[in-house]
């Protein structure tokens, strides 16, 4: 497909906003492996078993970027398009626009994500005791957010995953892990 042809994009290949991954693969591997614990020093082979990453990959998760404005400020949040989990976006986060980035399939439409984001931001204003509680949604657009997924081999052939935010370098919570597993299962069933 040619770069300038926006009309040739399929509906699921719409133009999305993309967040830039600030971590490279080596930094992500170091963050996921971590330092040895006192317990791993007592048991022979425990450190090796717990620290071996079988596979590490950069995955783009489907999100909706919701931008809202009050009389004095502009607020942004990210809504997970798999389960509807909402998180506030830190001011000054860099965003790159790209024509198409392959990300996992989404389940929620942008309209529903916009409503979830609006409710979250209104609750944020109430908790922050803001004088201005009127909020208007300015924009809701599809975006992809990068995460590193590390797979570890556990006992009896089981796999464990850890999800690391590729923008901030922090470990992701169970909501992102659950969304990744659901989206990966949906992508596998489509294939």
Q: Could you describe the 3D structure shown?
A:
- Helix content is 29%, strand content 31%.
- The protein has 191 residues and is an alpha+beta fold.
- It has one domain.
- Strands 1, 2, 3, 4, 5, 6 and 7 form a seven-stranded mixed sheet that branches.
- It is globular.
- The model is unreliable at 1-13 (pLDDT under 50).
Concise overview:
With 191 residues, this protein is of the alpha+beta class.
Key features of this structure:
191 residues, alpha+beta, seven-stranded mixed sheet, single chain, 7 strands
SSE topology:
Elements: E1 16-19, H1 25-33, H2 38-42, H3 46-51, E2 53-69, E3 74-80, E4 86-88, E5 95-98, H4 110-127, E6 136-153, E7 159-165, H5 174-190
Parallel strand pairs: 1-6
Antiparallel strand pairs: 1-5, 2-3, 2-6, 3-4, 6-7
What does the main sheet amount to? 7 strands, mixed
In terms of structural class, how would the helical and strand content be classed?
Answer: alpha+beta
- The rounded distance between the terminal residues' Cα atoms is 22 Å
How many structural domains does the protein architecture include?
A: 1
Low-confidence stretches: 1-13
Share of residues in strands: 25-35%
């Amino acid at each position: 497909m040619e770069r300038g042809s926006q009309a040739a994009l399929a509906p699921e290949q719409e133009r999305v906003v993309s967040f830039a991954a600030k971590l490279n693969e080596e930094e992500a591997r170091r963050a996921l492996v971590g330092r040895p614990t006192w317990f791993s020093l007592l048991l022979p082979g425990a450190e090796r078993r717990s620290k071996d990453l079988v596979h590490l990959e950069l995955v783009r998760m489907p999100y909706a970027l919701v931008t809202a404005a009050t009389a004095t400020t502009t607020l942004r949040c990210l809504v997970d398009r798999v389960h509807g989990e909402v998180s506030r976006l830190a001011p000054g986060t860099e965003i790159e626009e790209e024509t198409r980035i392959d990300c996992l399939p989404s389940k929620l439409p942008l309209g529903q994500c916009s409503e979830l984001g609006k409710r979250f931001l209104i609750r944020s204003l109430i908790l922050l005791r803001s004088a201005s509680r009127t909020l208007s949604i300015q924009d809701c657009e599809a975006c992809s957010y990068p995460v590193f997924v590390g797979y570890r081999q556990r006992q009896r052939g089981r796999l464990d995953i850890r999800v690391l935010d590729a923008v901030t370098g922090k470990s992701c919570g169970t909501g992102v892990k659950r969304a990744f597993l659901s989206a990966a299962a949906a992508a596998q069933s489509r294939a």
